[in-house]
Request: fold
Amino acid sequence: MPLAIFDLDNTLLGGDSDHSWGEFIVQNNIVDAQAYQAQNDKFFTEYLEGRLDIQVYLNFCLQLLAEHTQSQLDEWHGRFMTERIEPIILPQALALIDKHREAGDTLMIITATNRFITGPIAARLGIDILLATECEKEANGYTGRTTDIACFREGKVTRLERWLMENGRKLDGSYFYSDSHNDLPLLQMVDHPVAVDPDDTLREHAQNNGWPVLSLRG
Reply:
């Protein structure tokens, strides 16, 4: 069964779940609005420009998880799903997922966004296999730190290669759908790379290499 691998933010979703979570907690006065919004916007710009220091960003955004109980975090996330995520789930993305499911492909989401945010989103999309940036948890809850390799750029390749080895799988016939030039290392590994509503750098690379360019927002 070939793998059908999907990036999440701005690929299956018509927006960025990580950035949207930041906007949600600002809007609901969960954090100091002015300071957090400015820093969150700065990190998002750095991501779009391909110069994000992922560890610095993770240290910033995961601290909130250590400051609140699991029940409180879950309550916030439930509202976040309803208010922020449901409106940006793309019908054409759901159709694409269903197409691969009906073909018998193994479905996977691979995302730099942390598992706290993306776990419920992957479940909503009906995709069981999620490779995401991991949040450390102890008996009393989240620590505010990451574990494992951040699932970002070359980290996605490392995490996927480990998953393949652990599960006895190969990339023969595999697909990977992404919007971002940050995913070029992984796009270059699969048999069927697809640029989805791509940024300018990825669009140019796709056109130069004869990769399909797809929009799920039409």
